[in-house]
Amino acid sequence: MSSSPSPPICSASASPRRSPRPPRRPDPLRGEPAMANAHDLDAHLQLRHDERKLQGSLRIGPKVPLSELTAHAVRVFLEARGVGDRYIDKQAVQTLIETVHSAPGTEQEAIVARGRPPRDGERRILEWTPRIAERIAEINARKELIETDQAKPNQHKIPGEDEPDAVDHYSHSAFIIVAAGETLGTVTPPDPGEDGEDIFGGCVPARKSPMPAEIDTDSLALLPDHRLVAKVAGRLIFSGGTRAVETTLTVSGDVGFSAGHIDFPGPVHVEGGVKDRFRVVAHGTLTIRKLVEASFLQSTRDIVLERGVAGREVATISAGRHVESGYLESATITTMGDCIVKREITNCELRARGSVRIPTGAIRGGTVAAANTIEVGTLGSAQEVVTEILAGSIPELDGLLARVNELILEAQNKRRLVSERNAHLFKDEQGKNPQLIERRMGVEFELSELDGHIKSLQHAARRLEENIRANTAPRVVVTQKVFPGVAIYMRGHRITFKSETKGPFTLRVNSQGRPVVDTGAIQPTDAGTIAEVKPSDRVPRLPVPDDQTAPNADAQQDRAMPAA
User: Fold this and answer.
1) Which of 243, 250, 259, 322 is nearest to 295 (CA)?
2) 466: part of which helix (H) or strand (E)?
3) Which of 116, 311, 318, 481 has the most CB atoms around it within 10 Å of its CB?
4) What is the separation of C-alpha 418 from the centre of its chain, rounded to a whole number of angstroms?
């Protein structure tokens, strides 16, 4: 075959493909025989080619006239159909003719023309940054350990405490978390390749360099300088056919040794449960379908526990908004919104800045505090387990107010002692003694400082009281019954039940700051009719506002507040 010319360039401005040339007449001077029956030969020949026209095969029928089948006749046939002379494989043509002559009456076919294939662009390569590459290696190595069951340490020992030199298998994470705007790697520049030629002399464009994998353009950006940058924060998908960043983390199984601790900048959905001592932090809604054990959960938004929690007095749950759960047992729960439970809350320390609602379930043991309504089916148990309910309580503010009031009392006592110890300095007969005058001036300054301090503390106390009053609405709604052993704390009072008391009823604080009970009657009655009521600062008492001291203010509030 003749040598190939320089590669063509495929473009819109390229010359159009030449039309097939007419058959070249035989030249007797070159020893080429005349072909009076050329058209008879053409009827027995067929040219076929592949999709890209890079190869042409000649099919010769079984009834071809052998006397007319020559290499020259075949070349004339091919050229008449536009096949360039330089693409014809003369040796292949001769071999095909010899095969036909050696086996007359049979159909034969062979490749007799070959174009110049294009060199397609090389696949582009994604090279991860050192951080990403290191994390991928860690995850793959960890996966191998888990598959061989070598990554499960003694769960009763804590790395760093019981085993100072031990590997902390809990802190491992099976996920790569990236930040928005973070450079994840670089992609090699595209290779333009080289165009080829088909058997008819036409251009065969080289295929573009394929990407290393499909790039999700919604979450990743390939910049002009070939850097791959995350558009959003989330989990990097680094295997399979697509490279992407997922803004919601889905864990197909349990959060355990295979997943490790999770700290994710978006919502997290766990199809399984959370095993002992593992931590899940979500900057979005956290949903867990199965059992939560003695673990740590935190979310800036809602936490939804479809099954529930068996915390063994270790589990800690913190939500920026609401908590929903099938049940809660032996756990510490803090929520800035409501806590809604289907079945029961058992031996928990629960603080809700909103309400606690378990209308057909039970609260048994532990302490439950809510700023607003606590609605429950049954309080306590027949075994009279100690159960504490703090209604209208924001523990952080309650504790701060109690401390401020202590400081006020300490400052007042100090002022009284200073005043009593130096009373003799203020007697008239001592007024002309220079030394006593100087001492009296010092005492007056100290008393003035104490007065200013007391005034500042009292102002802080008033502000705290206003804040608590504005953000709380203490109510306890019991739909079924209360057992002995239950203590309910409401703004300066402790309400203790000495016997089983059936519902439904609602406990609240009236406009005068007294706890009352609504049982469906026209007027509420004093809470002392169903339980023992004593003073208590567990939930601080708030001063009655001036606009609530009118004789009919309490009656107006009672009429506005329906019974449970």
Assistant:
1) 259
2) helix 434-471
3) 311
4) 61
Cα–Cα distance measured from residue 529 to residue 153, given in angstroms and rounded to the nearest whole number:
58
Separation CA 540–CA 521 (nearest Å): 29
Tens digit of each residue's pLDDT (9 = 90 or more) over 237-267:
998 888 999 999 999 999 998 899 999 999 9
Return the pLDDT at 441: 81
Q: What is the pLDDT of residues 377-432, one digit of tens each?
A: 999 999 999 999 999 999 889 999 999 999 999 999 999 988 887 776 666 555 56
pLDDT digits (tens, 9 = 90+) for 23-62: 455 544 444 454 444 457 888 999 999 998 999 999 999 9
Q: What tokens appear for 326 in the block?
A: 């099938």
- In sequence order, the 6+-apart residues with CB closer than 8 A to the CB of 82 are 18, 19, 20, 21, 200, 201
CB 236 within 8 A of CB 139: no
CB 372 within 8 A of CB 395: no
Q: Which two tokens stand for residue 101?
A: 């002559």
Q: Residue 555: name the closest of 533, 524, 530 by CA.
A: 524
Instruction: State the DSSP code for 320.
Output: S
d(CA 145, CA 141): 6
- SS3 assignment, position 433: coil
Q: Nearest-CA neighbor of 517 among 561, 556, 463?
A: 561
Rounded to whole angstroms, how far apart are CA atoms 95 and 2? 18
Q: What is the pLDDT of residues 479-525, one digit of tens each?
A: 999 999 999 999 999 999 999 999 899 999 998 889 999 987 778 99
Q: Helix H segments across 472-562?
A: 553-560
**pTM of this structure:** 0.74
Helix axes 395-421, 434-471, angle to 10 degrees: 160
Axis-axis angle for helices 71-80, 90-102 (nearest 10) = 120
Cα–Cα distance between 126 and 65 in angstroms, integer? 60
Phi and psi at residue 397, to the nearest 5°: -75, -35
* Buried/exposed 372-397: b ≥16 CB within 10 Å, e otherwise: bbbbbbbbbbeeebebbbbbbbbbeb
Q: Which run of H or of E encompasses 537?
A: none
| DSSP codes joined into one string, 52-120 | TS-EEEEEE-TT--GGG--HHHHHHHHHHTT--GGGB-HHHHHHHHHHHHHSTTS-EEEEEEE-B--BP
Q: Which of 100, 18, 22 is nearest to 59 (CA)?
A: 100
Average pLDDT, the chain: 86
Q: Are strands 501-502 and 303-305 parallel, antiparallel or unpaired?
A: unpaired
